[in-house]
Specification:
The structure holds two protein chains of two kinds.
Chain A lengths: L1 H9 L1 H20 L1 E3 L5 E3 L2 H14 L11 H30 L1 H17 L5 E5 L3 H12 L3 E6 L2 H9 L8 E3 L5 H6 L7 E6 L4 H14 L5 E4 L3 H9 L4 E3 L1 H14 L1 H11 L17 E4 L3 H12 L4 E5 L2 H4 L6 E2 L5 H6 L7 E4 L4 H14 L4 E6 L5 H6 L4 E4 H14 L1 H9 L5 H14 L5 E6 L6 H8 L6 H4 L11 E8 L2 E4 L12 E6 L1 H12 L1 H15 L6
Parallel strand pairs in A: 3-4, 3-6, 4-5, 6-7, 7-8, 9-10, 9-12, 10-11, 12-13, 13-14
Antiparallel strand pairs in A: 1-2, 15-18, 16-17, 16-18
Helix pairs in contact in A: 1-5, 2-3, 2-4, 3-4, 6-18, 9-10, 11-12, 11-13, 11-18, 12-20, 18-19, 23-24
Chain B lengths: L2 H21 L11 H17 L6 H30 L7 H32 L1
Helix pairs in contact in B: 1-2, 1-4, 2-3, 3-4
Classes of the chains: A alpha/beta, B mainly alpha.
């Protein structure tokens, strides 16, 4: 609406000119004497005059209506034609100039964006920054049917968003993220706003977003990306709900991949989109590794490798600036000489961890030539290099934006899964391996994960049965009998009164208010929803267990 | 003093006075209400409306609304006149004329409110 008034304000001059020209023309026509078809004196009344001027002004023409004009009238019409044409040209010209003015166009886009945000009727997240991470986040949220709104400083990124083939409409605005007003335009004060995610490249901008949202809407969760620990601590100090440090998470995941492959593969499976082919488990060799690049990423990796007791040789171009350890080998790692000096022939694996994709690829190629047996881990910095890293046939590609996006999406859409993954490393290797094989047995493709909350709204039949005092175990709702075990559905986590149980036993008795996390196929999910939601179905399932129900131990 | 302000006040007041000069007279007597008076009242009222476009203040919004009301009433009066005289070919005596003039009376009140608001604002700005 403000845009409309802005336009009218700018068009004040032309509009007044137009009205004046029309008024004078009409007035003149009513004054000039004419004759009717019989030659009697006749004067145009206002109706006919306005009618004539209206079509004269726009088309110059249906002829002289209702009676042929006298000389005097023609003279006046001649004058009027020129004036009305000029007035129209002036008005249209001004309107076009206005429409092309950058400020006006921006006001229009801003208005459209604000309207689009206002009309969102489901919960949505504001995503600040549409780089690699932002793009993955938007896609991930769409897979969970969650709406998002994007703001970015860069018009090019917003163009990318507009061209992206997305199934849900995602409003995007090129605006200074630093400016709280733009956050408000993106729906910070909207009643359905579910949270703010700041994943711009700049820590400072993310910090500003976190402060603004925490001040304006203290209850909204805020998730921030922060590369610098100090800024992260600052963000934490005013209640930012989650700070994602890409280097830490990245290094942590890498360490997990090297140290506990089963754990890593479970992570990959459960956090990737369902119905994608399962990634193969990796078996990284034990022994000495070579780490190329000792920047923030390299440092985080080195710290975790040292913690895990893995020996690593570091190759770094500028050891002084990066405060690399004494025995660091000088060089980029892209040259055979440096790699040989680092003992590439005896090493079991290499981590190409510089911040330049071309260098990382070059390190991989050179190292492979020197030692074909090497286990190769590459850091991929930019998403557009996907094809190159795939072609390079690397054992493990670690892409920063992918890891951040997965972490954030899991945390928001499946908090129970995030909890599960967090507790996973506490298991010993043996049981993690068993779990991995059980998850892989669920289906050919990546398993779905979903949460069941035992309440009247989510599982009505189950809640009512429990309320009546029925004893119902996990095995019942999963229809899991010793003769016909249900392999398509795996209970991962039970949360009851803030106490979480990993991999609850199948004999666990259910209680009202339980939160359960399952992994399984889509049909298993549907079956479970049906059994827990339909009283008849539940009765039928329970009756199957009747003989066994009183003998089954309750754990 | 600035020319824009003079023009602004001029058109708002002219809209009121022209409106009044059409309105004044016996309500159902066509002799007392000339069509040219209605015509000028409409034109000036439209111009006054456009002059009020784009003022973001609260007062500006009320002024614009008052003007739009006046336009609506005056144009209704003119349409009624046209329909009665040319389409239905009625005699303008009596009830029809009274309705037309009543419409312009409504517009007169809206224009009066505009002028009162304008004066109030001026007086407040003086202090």
């Amino acid at each position: 609406m403000p845009v409309f008034f802005l336009a009218l304000r700018r068009l004040r001059g032309p509009l007044i000119t137009l009205i004046s020209v029309y008024a004078i023309a009409v007035f003149g026509l009513t004054l000039i004497p004419g004759v009717d078809s019989n030659g009697n004196p006749w004067r145009m009344d206002f109706l006919h005059a306005f009618y004539f001027v209206s079509f004269m002004g726009s088309t110059i023409g249906f002829g002289e209506i209702p009676y042929p004009f006298t000389e005097g009238q023609r003279l006046w019409v001649l004058v009027c034609i020129y004036f009305s044409v000029v007035a129209w040209l002036y008005t249209i010209g001004r309107a076009i100039t206005l429409a092309q003015e950058p400020a006006f166009r921006q006001a229009v886009t801003y208005g459209t964006f604000e309207n689009a945000v206002r009309r969102i009727d489901g919960p949505f997240y504001i995503i600040c920054g549409y780089g690699d991470t932002g793009r993955l986040l938007v896609r991930g949220f769409i897979q969970h049917n969650t709406r998002t709104v994007v703001i970015d400083n860069d018009q090019e990124q917003i163009n990318n968003l507009e061209l992206a083939d997305l199934t849900l409409y995602v409003p995007g605005l090129r605006a200074n993220v630093n400016h709280p007003n733009n956050l408000i335009a993106a729906g910070l004060n909207h009643s359905r706003c579910a949270g703010v995610i700041a994943v711009t490249n700049s820590d400072h901008v993310n910090l500003k977003v976190a402060i603004s949202s925490k001040l304006l809407q203290p209850h909204l969760p805020v998730i921030c990306r922060s590369e610098i620990h100090d800024v992260g601590i600052n963000m934490e100090s005013f209640g930012t709900d989650e700070i994602v440090n890409p280097f830490d998470i990245f290094a942590d995941r890498l360490a997990m991949a090297l140290h506990s492959p089963a754990n890593f593969v479970i992570h990959q499976w459960l956090t990737s989109a369902s119905n994608t082919p399962m990634s193969e488990p990796l078996f990284p060799p034990k022994g000495r590794w070579i780490l190329c690049g000792y920047g923030r990423f390299g440092k985080a990796v080195q710290k975790i490798l040292a913690f895990a007791g893995v020996e690593a040789t570091i190759i770094e171009l500028d050891p002084k600036r990066t405060h690399a350890p004494e025995d660091t080998i000088l060089g980029r790692g892209t040259e055979a000489v440096t790699l040989r000096e680092g003992g590439v022939e005896q090493a079991v694996g290499i981590i190409a961890g510089t911040d330049d994709d071309a260098n990382n690829l070059s390190i991989i190629m050179t190292a492979r030539e020197l030692n074909a047996e090497l286990f190769v881990v590459a850091r991929q910095n930019r998403q557009e290099n996907d094809a190159l890293f795939q072609a390079a046939d690397v054992n493990l590609v670690m892409q920063r934006s992918d890891i951040i996006a997965r972490t954030i999406i899991t945390r928001i859409t499946k908090p129970l899964l995030a909890e599960f993954l967090q507790q996973l490393p506490q298991n010993d290797e043996e049981s993690t391996n068993v779990l991995a094989s059980r998850i892989s047995a669920v289906s050919e493709q990546t398993a779905r994960t979903w949460t069941l909350i035992v309440t009247k709204s989510q599982a009505p039949a189950l809640a009512v049965a429990l309320f009546k005092g029925d004893h119902i175990t996990l095995s019942m709702i999963l229809e899991h009998t010793p003769d016909a075990p249900n392999k398509n559905c795996l209970p991962l986590l039970l949360k009851r009164d803030h106490v979480t149980t990993m991999l609850p036993a199948i004999t666990t008795q259910l209680e009202h208010g339980d939160h359960l996390l399952f992994a399984g196929t889509r049909s298993a999910e549907k079956r479970l929803t049906w059994v827990t939601g339909n009283a008849n179905a539940l009765d039928g399932v329970i009756s199957l267990f009747q003989p066994a129900a009183h003998t089954s131990p309750v754990s | 003093m600035n020319l824009q302000k003079v023009l602004f006040a001029f058109f708002i007041m002219l809209a009121l006075t022209l409106n009044f000069s059409f309105f004044i007279g016996e309500i159902d007597n066509p002799e007392h209400h000339h069509v040219y008076e209605l015509f000028t009242a409409i034109v000036v009222s439209l111009i006054a409306t456009i002059m009020k476009f784009g003022d973001r203040s609260h007062l500006g919004a009320v002024l614009l609304a008052a003007s739009l009301v006046a336009d609506l009433q005056l144009i209704s009066a003119a349409v009624l006149w046209g329909v009665a005289e040319h389409v239905l070919e009625l005699n303008l005596q009596g009830a029809i004329m009274a309705t037309i003039v009543s419409f312009s009376g409504g517009a007169l009140i809206a224009n009066l409110i505009s002028v009162v608001l304008l004066i109030t604002e001026t007086v407040q700005a003086r202090r």
